[in-house]
């Protein structure tokens, strides 16, 4: 069996697949890859089914050695990727030989690489998924230096000769995010609702897989009373008492007590996953 021997994991290396949906009634979030499009693309490039587990690598600084031959692909963030010191083209499948060393430098565009290998990363599933939920501490722990990861058996599909879908690096300038109406939009003043769409926002340093705090004008509430905890979905934009919005992401709590002014449209969630601290974003109506 081919294995991946991790020599340097970088700031955060997690095993993620498409998550464990349908368990919110048990208090378990869906979790899974933040950039789901990058996961699907990495798997497609090496001939895997969409949902096989891959490595989500924050920022870069990752190095690993292949014990055996394997196809792999790196998607998501855009930066220097080398195999035995030779550059590997982004968003393409490449073949590693026994003993080959793969290195991912610091991302130049985006913030989360997705490393897919043919056969997927094999770790014991928990509640039907191999994903790490960083809030609930469910699933495999973060990958550590010296850890050896098993790679699953060859899938039935072959490695495609050419992927037909054009792939572009994450933008490094302002990003436009589509929003759906939130269930508690009426709790906010007309000025707050206008500011949400008219003002530029920036991603703060307080951003992880649970949620991403935004920096911008405070969003004033019309209703000042307490809100009983209610269900959240990925992309819910909760607004705390001081008026600062936070976009809840894959490892969010399944219920929350702050009003949700809007919800990031599913098609824009991958873009949020690749935002870098300080990067500008603007909202539009979906």
From TrEMBL:
Stored PANTHER family: 5-OXOPROLINASE SUBUNIT C
Protein name: Biotin-dependent carboxyltransferase family protein
The keyword Lipid biosynthesis is assigned to this record: no
GO molecular function, one term: hydrolase activity
Pfam annotation, one family: CT_A_B
Keywords: ATP-binding, Hydrolase, Nucleotide-binding, Transferase
Annotated InterPro entries: CT_A_B, Cyclophilin-like_dom_sf, PxpC
Record organism: Agromyces albus
Domain of life: Bacteria
The Carboxyltransferase domain, residue ranges: 25-286
Coiled-coil stretches: none
């Amino acid at each position: 069996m081919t294995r991946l021997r991790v020599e340097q994991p970088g700031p955060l290396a997690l095993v993620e697949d498409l998550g464990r949906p349908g368990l919110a009634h048990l208090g378990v979030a869906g979790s899974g890859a933040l950039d789901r499009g990058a996961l699907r693309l990495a798997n497609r490039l090496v001939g895997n089914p969409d949902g096989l587990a891959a490595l989500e690598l924050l920022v870069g600084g990752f190095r690993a050695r292949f014990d055996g031959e394997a196809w792999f692909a790196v998607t998501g963030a855009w930066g220097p990727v080398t195999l035995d010191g030779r550059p590997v083209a982004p968003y393409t499948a490449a073949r590693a030989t026994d003993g080959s060393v793969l290195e991912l430098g610091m991302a130049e565009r985006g913030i989360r690489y997705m490393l897919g290998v043919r056969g997927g990363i094999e770790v014991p599933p928990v509640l039907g998924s191999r994903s790490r939920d960083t809030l609930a501490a469910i699933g495999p722990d973060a990958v550590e230096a010296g850890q050896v990861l098993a790679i699953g058996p060859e899938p039935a599909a072959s490695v495609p000769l050419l992927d037909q879908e054009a792939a572009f690096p994450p933008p490094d300038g302002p990003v436009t995010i589509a929003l759906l109406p939130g269930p508690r939009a009426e709790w906010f003043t007309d000025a707050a609702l206008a500011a949400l769409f008219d003002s530029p926002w920036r991603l703060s340093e307080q951003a992880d897989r649970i949620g991403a705090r935004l920096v911008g004008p405070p969003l004033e509430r019309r209703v000042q009373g307490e809100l009983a905890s209610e269900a959240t979905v990925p992309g819910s934009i909760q607004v705390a008492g001081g008026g600062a919005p936070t976009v809840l992401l894959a490892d969010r709590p399944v219920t929350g007590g702050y009003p949700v002014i809007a919800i990031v449209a599913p098609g824009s969630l991958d873009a949020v996953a690749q935002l870098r601290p300080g990067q500008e974003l603007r909202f539009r109506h979906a």
